[in-house]
Design goal:
By secondary structure, this protein is of the alpha/beta class. It has 2 domains: 119 residues, P-loop containing nucleotide triphosphate hydrolases (Rossmann fold, 3-Layer(aba) Sandwich); 271 residues, no CATH class. Helix content is 42%, strand content 15%. Helix 3 packs across helix 4, helix 8 packs across helix 14 and helix 12 crosses helix 13.
């Protein structure tokens, strides 16, 4: 089993909170992770079991008596009736790590947690494997824009093979697993279970068409009207369906940078699929090489880098304050970190020959932002970390997605 970056966070939360909740998309390894870390005296139940689910819903107080803590409850979203009684239990006992919970349907689940367990629960959002997890870099740390570090070069072909394959654990754990068969089954399972249970979606075939349409726009601005027109549905429906994918952890929306001084900026978020393998499958790419040589390769590289950053921060239980910039004159900055009251601008380019013309839009932030501008640069396939000019850097992709704690 591949080690997860979230392991230390899970252990820390269990030692400091009464309840631990691990949430995220289906089949990203939530149960596997917790079972590998659970104490010897902890019991396990899953509410995928219809009998146990009905017991938990019908008489949650009795259920918790019959299944005493320490207890791992899998798929807890199926019995929201448990949450008030878990609250009562942890308030009575005041012990750490009493209940470990997993759940896939984040929107409803978070509502129940917020209402019932506020202040008592620590939350980890788990995603599919990162690149560093797959290559077994157990010293990986999240990228910090004010601490640029050197790392080993990663070949462009290797990166796009990972982008195409994605990071779903089952694709790696089962040697003979066919990628296409896995994603077809994954989508059907996701549509049949989560979508139907989270929403009023009645036409699952239409929702699959919507997912394909969104995947074909990966890395682009989210234009609700354009998608609605293509599919023959309303803008309101598109918005509600996007919310389902975001709540489920399938899609991340990279919001535009907003400032009162920057007048002519876009207000549309960018579409970022959290697993590029799922996205490339939906979009119909037949091989990593075809994707790599296509006109879409730049968008996939950009969303891959962004998703890797988001995954790394979520694995340590933190949000990351990132955005992008685009104005009406089409000046654009792919990624902006907002940290310590400074903005760190980055371009993400599929090139091994970066130049200063690629960062011309950085001047927009330098001229108009109220915040200071920190070190940034061009994230690309150059061999090493070096200065581009006096202020900005050329940054190998490895220094973003595979940085180790001992790197300098």
């Amino acid at each position: 089993m591949l080690r997860r970056e979230a392991e230390k966070t899970v252990k820390n939360i269990s030692e400091t909170f009464r309840v631990l909740l691990v949430t995220g998309p289906r089949q990203v390894g939530k149960t596997t992770l917790l079972k590998s870390l659970m104490p010897k005296d902890m019991s396990y139940v899953t509410l995928d079991d219809i009998v146990l689910r009905n017991e938990a819903k019908k008489d949650p107080k009795l259920f918790l008596e019959e299944h005493p803590w320490p207890l791992l409850i899998d798929e807890v979203q199926y019995a929201p009736e448990l949450f008030p009684y878990i609250k009562i239990k942890v308030d009575e006992e005041k012990k750490r790590g009493m209940y470990w919970l997993t759940g896939s349907q984040q929107f409803k689940l978070m509502n129940n947690v917020t209402e019932s367990l506020a202040g008592r629960v620590g939350i980890v959002r788990l995603n599919s494997f990162t690149y560093a997890e797959v290559i077994k870099n157990e010293n990986k740390i999240p990228f910090s824009p004010n601490k640029l570090s050197k790392s080993e070069k990663i070949d462009v072909n290797k990166i796009f093979e990972f982008i195409y394959k994605g990071g779903m654990p089952e694709v790696y754990d089962i040697a003979k697993m066919n990628r296409n068969n896995f994603f077809d089954s994954y989508i059907n399972t996701y549509l049949a279970r989560d979508v139907k249970e989270q929403s009023n979606v009645s036409d699952l075939f239409e929702f699959r068409r919507f997912m394909i349409s969104l995947a074909e726009r990966n890395g682009e601005q989210l234009n609700y009207s354009s998608i609605a027109k293509e599919l023959g549905i309303t803008d309101k429906t598109v918005k509600s369906w996007v919310e389902i994918l975001v709540a489920s952890g399938i899609v991340y929306l990279l919001e535009p940078y907003m400032s009162s001084k920057l007048k002519r900026i876009t207000h549309m978020p960018k579409i970022v699929f959290m697993d590029t393998g799922l996205c490339s499958y939906l979009a119909g790419w037949d091989s990593a090489k075809e994707l790599q040589l296509s006109s879409s390769s730049g968008h996939y590289l950009e969303t891959f880098v962004i998703s890797e950053i988001v995954k790394a921060y979520q694995a340590i239980g933190e949000d990351v304050n990132i955005s992008y910039y685009r104005d009406k004159e089409k000046n654009e900055i792919d990624l902006i970190f907002d940290k310590n009251n400074k903005l760190f601008p980055f371009e993400i380019k599929k090139t091994a020959m970066p130049n200063e013309s690629m960062i011309k839009s950085f001047s927009k932030l330098e001229e108009e932002s109220k915040k200071g501008i920190g070190e940034g640069g061009i994230i690309c396939f150059y061999d090493e970390l070096i200065h581009l000019n006096e202020k900005y850097y050329i940054i190998p992709i490895s220094s973003i997605i595979n940085i180790s704690k001992n790197s300098k």
